[in-house]
Amino acid sequence: MIKVSRLNGKTFVLNALYIETVESFPDTTITLTNGKKYVVKESEVVVMQSILGFYQSVNLLGQQLAEGNKNEEQ
């Protein structure tokens, strides 16, 4: 889950697993896999860093890195 802010400053939490796209129109717009869109105050870069941090915390990226290292050692 990542914490983001609406344009009015109210914060909420999104499940990063359901994020399909993050775009700047210039406001940052997050589109979920169900088509729902959220406009947030955070920049695209900050949202992407939050998503990467979430993926690492649930070990989605860590598994790929570990598997890649095993293949490189052989």
Average residue-wise pLDDT:
87
Compute the CA-based radius of gyration. Answer: 15 Å
Give the biggest sheet: 3 strands, antiparallel
Number of domains: 1
If helices are DSSP runs of H or I spanning 4 or more residues, what is the number of helices? 2
Q: Report the helical percentage.
A: 25-40%
Low-confidence stretches: none
* Record field, number of beta strands: 5
End-to-end C-alpha gap: 36 Å
Sum up the structure in keywords.
5 strands; cell projection; 2 helices; about 70 residues; cilium; alpha+beta; two-stranded antiparallel sheet
Describe the structure.
This protein has helices spanning about 45-55, 60-74, and strands at about 1-5, 10-15, 20-25, 30, 35-40. The chain is globular. It has one domain. The protein contains 2 helices and 5 strands. It is of the alpha+beta class. InterPro entries: SwrD-like (IPR009384). Pfam families: FlbD. Keywords: Cell projection, Cilium, Flagellum. This is Flagellar protein FlbD.
What would a concise description of this structure say?
The chain has 74 residues and is α+β, with helices and mostly antiparallel strands. It has one domain. Helices cover 38% and strands 31% of the residues.
